[in-house]
Amino acid sequence: MHKTYSLRNARTPTAAQLQNPPPPTASTRGKFFGKGGIAFAFRRNAAGAMGPDLSRKLSQLVKIEKNVLRAMETAANERREAATQLSLWGLENDDDVSDITDKLGVLVYEMSELDDQFIDRYDQYRLTMKSVRDIENSVQPSRDRKDKVADRIAFMRYKEPDNVQKIEVLEQELVRAEAESLVAEAQLSNITRSKLKAAFNYQFESMIEHSEKVALIAGYGKALLELLDDSPVTPGETRPAYDGYEASKQIIIDAEAALNEWTLDYAQVKPTLSFKQEDYADYESESDSDIERAHAQGEPHEEEQHGEDGDLWNNEEGAPVHAQTTTTTTTEQTTVAV
Amino acid sequence: MHKTYSLRNARTPTAAQLQNPPPPTASTRGKFFGKGGIAFAFRRNAAGAMGPDLSRKLSQLVKIEKNVLRAMETAANERREAATQLSLWGLENDDDVSDITDKLGVLVYEMSELDDQFIDRYDQYRLTMKSVRDIENSVQPSRDRKDKVADRIAFMRYKEPDNVQKIEVLEQELVRAEAESLVAEAQLSNITRSKLKAAFNYQFESMIEHSEKVALIAGYGKALLELLDDSPVTPGETRPAYDGYEASKQIIIDAEAALNEWTLDYAQVKPTLSFKQEDYADYESESDSDIERAHAQGEPHEEEQHGEDGDLWNNEEGAPVHAQTTTTTTTEQTTVAV
């Protein structure tokens, strides 16, 4: 990640980036590839060119996300074909290679099915962002009307300063337009925030589900590979007969069961947040503000947080303090999380 | 996954699939999309058309994997653009939306960087499979030569059965060709297995790394979203000033640290293998064969296995038995894992 922690500023390479050379670049990567063709470029460039200014940037984002979806879809479809091809190739080989490539194909196929599910969910995120764009579109006219009335008043004052009656009428119109605009801006602000939050929460949750499931399948795939006898044979020697059919089938059954059981509560990969106290000394006066922050942020693994910040809990009362702090959290949540 | 646990047979829908309707299909999915254009189709159809029969299926697989790579690359590039666009859109909004979209952009950008790393590694897998194809290519001539000599002997026996000298020369040639072919087939068998195992182990490991890192970033993204104040305001009301700059920066720093610390040993998502004893009663006579199987398969979390199968370890000696069993495992590994 960047030194600057922002995409808007120029990026400087970190010392680690300079020290550790990256892995060899894929042979398929190049200047001409990865651009996605004419349709992708058209969508990207034409987006927002016709609509109001306000929603132009978000229109482009929605179109780029459509490109992302299309590319992911192609990848999923190709991977599904690769799974089938792997299984077909294995069929011509010995029993063990045949069985294991077939089962590997099943796992890879399942991954592309998961990709498809993820694509459907990613589309929900995109549609939510699209509805923000629609709100932006609908707010634009009320802004325009207000500006237009204000312009006309300025024009009248300069051109016909004596036409008080006309100017008064226009000023009343301006008040009405301002009121309408005020409501529209508040709606825009509210809806943008709630939709943005909902859209990205949904995206991240489906990403967590997809990633963990893929990692699970990959783990079972590694177990499957252990069934493959890769000890070298001398010419003329025959390999011992393959008896892993039951084991390989059991691995697929286990993988299937693990995928079916998976829920978001079961997620293994958890972020650990370290809110250093000195960073917030200016904002909060209480000593255990960072723990409350973790609570306010819906931080899911309280135990670890308590473990890390255990020194803050070195109190004679122990657990009761915890209970008390969590109740105060709800009231202070608004000030912390704003 | 399929009832049949094989890609080669027809798939029957499970009861769960019939009961739970899938999520709404993405609006971008359709008959015409996700095929990847002319270049993709050409690569898929032309692969292996020129080379020897033996390597045709694997040639196609390698080409399809190239399509997978290209599509993933497009997706990563588009996602990188989406991250930049998200940050640009946020810039026009209020302080909190601006800061949080910028930081979200940083996280999404980092995901596409991870995608790039994964693509480079996936290419290594592809190149390893490609080297298997090359071995298949090189084995084909020795098979052909053997067949050709055998054909010529049959032809001579039918056409000139009295030309014993010529037939003898050919039979000696056949013995040489068979010896060469025997070596070639052994090489093919050895190299196919070791490369297949190495390639998929590498792919699955890089998949685990990629997935867990993406899940980590998504977790930090969810924490970031909690900083966004989405409580509705009434028209004319101003929102409290945003003071989350330090917190959002800290989340990015934490995410960066977590990504840098991540190693494969640290992986959270582990498969749980259940090798039921009754399935193997026919194959093994010993009562604790399933545990040895788990050992032989490099099952990474011994504690859980021991926990589950604790009753098998109810022995007066306890730990010494464990030590003894693990040493016998190495000798029995070949029979178990073959």
From TrEMBL, chains A, B:
<feature type="region of interest" description="Disordered">
    <location>
        <begin position="1"/>
        <end position="29"/>
    </location>
</feature>
<dbReference type="GO" id="GO:0005886">
    <property type="term" value="C:plasma membrane"/>
</dbReference>
<dbReference type="GO" id="GO:0008289">
    <property type="term" value="F:lipid binding"/>
</dbReference>
<feature type="compositionally biased region" description="Basic and acidic residues">
    <location>
        <begin position="290"/>
        <end position="309"/>
    </location>
</feature>
<feature type="compositionally biased region" description="Polar residues">
    <location>
        <begin position="1"/>
        <end position="19"/>
    </location>
</feature>
<feature type="compositionally biased region" description="Acidic residues">
    <location>
        <begin position="280"/>
        <end position="289"/>
    </location>
</feature>
<dbReference type="InterPro" id="IPR027267">
    <property type="entry name" value="AH/BAR_dom_sf"/>
</dbReference>
<feature type="compositionally biased region" description="Low complexity">
    <location>
        <begin position="324"/>
        <end position="338"/>
    </location>
</feature>
<dbReference type="GO" id="GO:0006897">
    <property type="term" value="P:endocytosis"/>
</dbReference>
<keyword id="KW-0597">Phosphoprotein</keyword>
<feature type="region of interest" description="Disordered">
    <location>
        <begin position="280"/>
        <end position="338"/>
    </location>
</feature>
<dbReference type="GO" id="GO:0036286">
    <property type="term" value="C:eisosome filament"/>
</dbReference>
<protein>
    <recommendedName>
        <fullName>Sphingolipid long chain base-responsive protein PIL1</fullName>
    </recommendedName>
</protein>
<dbReference type="Pfam" id="PF13805">
    <property type="entry name" value="Pil1"/>
</dbReference>
<dbReference type="InterPro" id="IPR028245">
    <property type="entry name" value="PIL1/LSP1"/>
</dbReference>
<dbReference type="GO" id="GO:0070941">
    <property type="term" value="P:eisosome assembly"/>
</dbReference>
